[in-house]
Structure formats: C-alpha cells, structure tokens
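sorry for the late reply, my laptop died twice this morning and i had to redo everyting from scratch. anyway the thing you sent over, i finally got around to it. pasting the sequence first so we're on the same page, its 331 residues, then the predicted structure underneath. double check i copied it right bc i was rushing
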Amino acid sequence: MAAVLGARLSVIRLPKLMLAANIKGTLDLLAEIVASKDDVVRIDADGLEFAEPLPLCLLAAQLNRLSSQGQVAAIERVRPEVAERLRRMNVFGEWLEEKAFARYRAQSMNTLHVCWASSLSDADTIANTLADSIVQFVPGEYIAADDSFTRDPIRTPLAYVITELLDNGLTHGRGKGYSHASVWIAAQYYGHGDLIRLAVVDNGCGFLRSLESHPQVNPKSHSAALRKAFDAGISCNKEVGLFKDALNMGIGLTISRDITIRSRGTVWAGSGDAWITNPGLESEKYARIPMWHGSMLNLELHRAGLLSFHFRDLFAQYERPSMRPEIKFLF
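ok and here's the structure:
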C-alpha cells in the first residue's frame, strides 16, 4: 500500500500471541484500531508468532469496518507463508503487505483456514469444504486409525456445527436493520493431537437485539440474551443449512454446543459486553468484556471425542415433538 501524500498515519502493532483466552486484550486492541481517526492505519504484524481463529476473525471484521468508514488499512510485514495462506482464503488479501523476504518461518500456525461468508449458499459450501479438509488430515500419531478419522463420524457433526454457526450470523445477525452484516469463520487444526478450533464472528445486530422481544429474555441484557440463545426452541429459522430441517425449531446452537461438549471440548460465546463459557451448562462461567457489536462463537473440539458418541442420538434428548426436527442427512 503506497503512502498517501499528506495523509494522517497511525501504526498499531499486533502482539506476539493473539489468543482467544485473551479476548479482552484482543477487543481492546481492535477498539484502538477502529477508534483511529487517521486516514491510513498500518497494522504491524512483524512480531506476530501465533494467532488463533477467533482473534483473526475479529481482526477481519474490524478491518472491514475501517474500510466502510473510508479509511485505508494495511497489515504490514506479515510473514510470507502466513500471508499466502490468508490470501488464498480471500479474507485479508486487500490488506496484506507481506515481508519482502522470509527471515524465518512462522511457528505453530499449523493448518489454518479463514473464510468470509455473505450468503446461505456460502454457508453450505464453506461447511463442506472445511469439514472435508479437516477429516482428510490425520495427525501422525493416529495414522494407524486413518479410516476412522476420515469418515462420517467426524465429518457429519463438524459440517453441522459449521453450518449452524454460519447460519446464526447470516440469519439472526442480519435482523433489526443489519441486513448487510458480514460473517467470518476460521478453522485451525494440528499435526499432533486431535484439537480442532472453530470460530465464527459477525458484525450484525447481536443476540440481545435479535431476542429482546422474547418474554424469556429477562432482564434485557446481553448476558441474558446470550444464555437464552442456547436454549432449545428459542428462535426459529426458515429452511436453511446442510440438513434441510424445514421446521427448524431453534436447536442449532443447542446441538452445536452439545456436540462440542460431548467431544470433550469447550464452547465460548460473546455478544455486547457478555462473554460466557459453556452457556446453559453447570460449568458455565461469565465474564464482562469490552463491547462487541455483533456476535462471536469460539469452539474447541476433539477428533477422538467426536468418535465417542453417535451424532444423531443428541437430537433424542429434546423430548417434545416440536424439539425433534425432521433431519435429512446428505452425507
């Protein structure tokens, strides 16, 4: 990005580590980026050694906001192999300025996918692509179990979760006057172990505005709306998603949480000033965060854990007939 003659310039440095566990620090940094009134905002990524999916999605959303405000932004001195990976996913391409030469290789980025979704058809395509990529990759220590790690017991629940998380942003997030909201998703998995990280971020209306008229959201707070969103049957969508549930009775987030927990994983959800770990469960924890105008979902799942239960059985726990969608599995 060439410098603009006479333009006011800000330089903001990314930290060495961008972790979901430091959500407050990430949001503070991103607020600093957006608060800049300068014409050009340069984001120095020279010190960045590791980034998880959630901070990357949040960064993409904030860069999009800068552009909508008429400001010019660039992520400069990005390590070439990281820049190439992000550019291929068409998320950071317009903002990237990689190093002229590689002095060292990026450490511990592992296999990373970042995508931008603008329609429900994108959701299906992205879910299939990411699920296929993840199940085709088998960590070295599981190579003897190659068949079990590349079949439906992993692919099907992953595709379901990804579709539902995207659908949340592309339907509920686009309500209340936010019809042009965007959604970003990132997935990360590793050469050793069975950890899979997924994150979805949108800059839409957020859970509170989406559910504020619901009588069970009381008090009318971000935390109350966020918790209630994970209750079965709270919200209804039109027919969407890979599973073509024509009577979708609002169990997408509920089942996605249950899949993650049954895999021995963890769910984090954020909206407004609320950040909740394992919403709706006994292990739930609440924290207050800097304001985020939209929603964010962060999941950690385990491959081996996904093989420990039958995905279809999770639907049986919602006993009322209206809680049992007619699922048509396409895999």
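The chain has two domains: 9-98, 111-323.
thats about all i looked at so far, will dig more tmrw
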